[in-house]
Amino acid sequence: MASSSTIPNLSLTLNCQTYIDFKPPLPNYLSFSYSKRRRPPCLFTVRASDSDFEAAVVAGNVPEAPPVPPIPAAPAGTPVVPSLPIQRRPRRNRRSVVLRSAFQETSLSPANFVYPLFIHEGEEDTPIGAMPGCYRLGWRHGLVEEVAKARDVGVNSVVLFPKIPDALKSPTGDEAYNKNGLVPRTIRLLKDKYPDLIIYTDVALDPYSSDGHDGIVREDGVIMNDETVHQLCKQAVAQARAGADVVSPSDMMDGRVGAMRLALDAEGFQHVSIMSYTAKYASSFYGPFREALDSNPRFGDKKTYQMNPANYREAMTEMREDESEGADILLVKPGLPYLDIIRLLRDNSPLPIAAYQVSGEYSMIKAGGALKMIDEEKVMMESLLCLRRAGADIILTYFALQAARCLCGEKR
After folding, report:
1. Which one from 163, 169, 302, 333 is the annotated catalytic residue?
2. Which of 127, 244, 266, 403 could be stapled to 399 by a disulfide with Cβ–Cβ 3.0 to 4.6 Å?
3. Does 169 qualify as catalytic in the annotation?
4. Which domain of life does the UniProt lineage start with (predicted)?
C-alpha cells in the first residue's frame, strides 16, 4: 500500500507512471518531523511505497517518534528501597480499566435475573412499606406495565407471589389449585400478552393457608408432610395448565419434587421445569416478604421444615434428594448470607443453581442508601455480582429492573 510522506536523503526518480499530484514540496519540508508548525503550501505531494520507507530505515534514516515518557515522580518523603524480589505481581493485571475488564472472571447480565412480583386482586398498585420501590401490583394493569418495563431492559423472567383475600384462605389451602384463582388467571393474561415471557411460580400453601404455614397443620401443631405434598402436586398442575414454564416448590416438604414430577408428567406437562428450593433456611431475612403477602404464620415458626441456618452439610442431603427426584434447577435462599451454600451446590451438582436475594437483603440495601450510609447502586451491583461469583446461574432479586437499567446504562 502506498503512503504519503517524504524521505530525507533518499534519491527518487519521479515519473508520471509512479507518482501523481505533481506539486513539488520545498526541500526544507522533506522530513519525518512531528513539528506542529504550519507548513507553507506544497506544490505537489510525493507518494512513496513501503519499500522506500523500509530502505530509508535500513540506511539509518529512522523517522522521529514522541520521546519516551518520563517515570512519574514519587511524593516527597517516599523511602528509597530496593525492588522486592518477587516474580508474580498480580497488580500488573489490575493497572488499567481495560486490563481489569479483559480479565474479569464473572459477568452480570439482565438475562441472569428473575423478577419477583407481588400481585393482588385490586386495580391499584399498593406500596409495600418494608420494601421501598415494591408494590402489590394489580394483576390486570400494574403487573402488565411492570413486566413491559422489565422486558425493555432485557429481563424476561418473572416469578409470581399472590396476596390472597383472607376469605379464601383455609386450613388445607384449597385455593392454591383453583384453576380460576389469582395465579392461574395472571399466568394466562401474561402469556396472552407476552408469549415468550418465562413465568416461574411459587408452589407452597402459606399464601393460601389460614394458619400461614407452608403445609397443612395438624391440631397439635405438626406440619403434615405427605398430605401437604398431595395438595402441592395439584397446585403445580393447575399452574402448569395455565401456562407456567417453571414451578418452584418452596415448601421444603420431603419428597415433593419427585411427586410433583410424576404428577406433571401424568398430565402431559413433561416440558414444565421444576426449580426446587433445595436449601431454604429458616431465616430472619424474610420479614418484609411476609408483610407483602400478609403470610406470617399464625403461631410458631417454620423450623420443622426449613433448614437450620447453622447447617452446611445438610444442604448436600437436600441436593442429592432433589437431583434424584428430577429437579431441573436448585435454589438457595437467602442469597448473600449463604454464599458458601451456593458454592457448595455449584461444586457438587451439574444442574443450574439459583439464588434468591430475599426481601431482607433488598430492604437493608434500600435503607442504607436512603440514609446515605452506603452508595445504594454500587452495593446493589456488587451484591448481585457476588451471588454470580459464588456460582449462581440465575438470581431472583427485587432489584432486577433497577439493576438491569444500570447495566443498560440508564439513569436511576
Report:
1. 333
2. 403
3. no
4. Eukaryota
